Amino acid sequence: MSDTPRTDAENTYVIHGITHVSVHFARQLERELNAACEERDRYKADSEALDHVSESVITGRYSIQLLYDSVEERDKTAAHLRKRLEKN
Residue ranges of the alpha helices (H) in the chain? Predict the structure, then answer.
């Protein structure tokens, strides 16, 4: 895309009091608009992919925490049963 600032005077002309835009300028604007839309779509796709990864990480962390809690509960139960067995 062009980073060069434009002025209306450079790309327009008047015929019978009606302002017209040059075909070259209109085509250039259309190419730049298409490029900007493609770039926006790529960023949107990247953002959605990152959102999916983020959700997967959160789900993974939650699963790890559940597993940790289960192991901790198992260890507490095992310790409690050992104490009861030792008393008997």
Answer: 8-11, 23-87
Locate the domains of the chain by residue range. Answer: 8-87
- Whether the per-residue pLDDT at 70 is higher than 60: the answer is yes
Place of tokens 């070259």: 24
Quote the pTM value. Answer: 0.49
Tokens encoding 66:
């559940």
CA distances from 24 to 1, 18, 20, 61, 83 (A): 15, 18, 12, 55, 88
Q: How many CB atoms lie within 10 A of CB 48?
A: 10
Tokens of 65: 């925490």
